[in-house]
Design brief:
By secondary structure, this protein is mainly beta. 9% of the residues lie in helices and 31% in strands.
């Protein structure tokens, strides 16, 4: 390839090598107050490290755990350790079959996706 053609080829490829897309803004962290007074209506799991929680106002929240929480996918009930207050947030811990599962992130969410039936 001639030098002039090589320069043209590189110039044509430059827009494709432009700056990467700007990262999407992270959703704002959420809080669910009064968890000690029954403010969680139901929950659905999405793997061992994600759980969707619905409050009594039927708002959904997506909680990402700090790692896998064994047994959460088959749990019929969960506990919440929200110390020092009674607010569930990213500093809280879920308790599943005696296993402590810290929450890394809690954000408002749409209704969780349906799980496929076996």
């Amino acid at each position: 390839m001639r030098p002039a053609l090589l320069i043209l080829a590189l110039a044509a490829a430059a827009p494709a090598m432009a700056a990467p897309e700007a990262p999407r803004p992270r959703p704002q962290e959420a809080r669910i107050p009064f968890v000690g007074f029954g403010s969680i209506r139901t929950f659905r799991t999405a793997g061992e490290d994600v759980i969707y929680l619905q409050d009594t106002r039927r708002n959904w929240y997506r909680a990402e755990l700090t790692g896998p929480c064994p047994g959460i996918e088959r749990a019929l009930r969960i506990g919440v350790d929200s110390r020092p207050g009674s607010t569930l947030d990213s500093g809280s811990t879920l308790i599943v079959d005696g296993q402590r599962c810290p929450i890394h992130s809690l954000v408002r969410s749409e209704k969780p996706p349906r799980r496929p039936r076996n």
